[in-house]
């Protein structure tokens, strides 16, 4: 086989690999976010109510900022 055919096959394999990887990663992230949704203020408010605390806006913002800071430390 000539080298141009090999080059075309290699380029085609790269394109198929990138497309397959993109869709596989997208599907994985969708499933991950369904199982582990990010916590928002409404969820935090519900958790505080379940623990018997009356959540104020100030306390909600403090807890959200603390969680964001903790996530930044992990990265």
UniProtKB/TrEMBL annotation:
Annotated InterPro entries: UPF0154
Indicate the transmembrane segments per the record: 6-25
Keyword annotations for this protein, in alphabetical order, are:
Cell membrane, Membrane, Transmembrane, Transmembrane helix
User: Where is this gene product found?
Assistant: Cell membrane; Membrane
- In what way does this protein cross or attach to the membrane? Single-pass membrane protein
A GO cellular component annotation here is: plasma membrane
> Family, per the entry?
Belongs to the UPF0154 family.
Query: What is the name attached to this protein's record?
Result: UPF0154 protein FC19_GL000714
Question: What lineage does UniProt assign to this protein's organism?
Answer: Bacteria, Bacillati, Bacillota, Bacilli, Lactobacillales
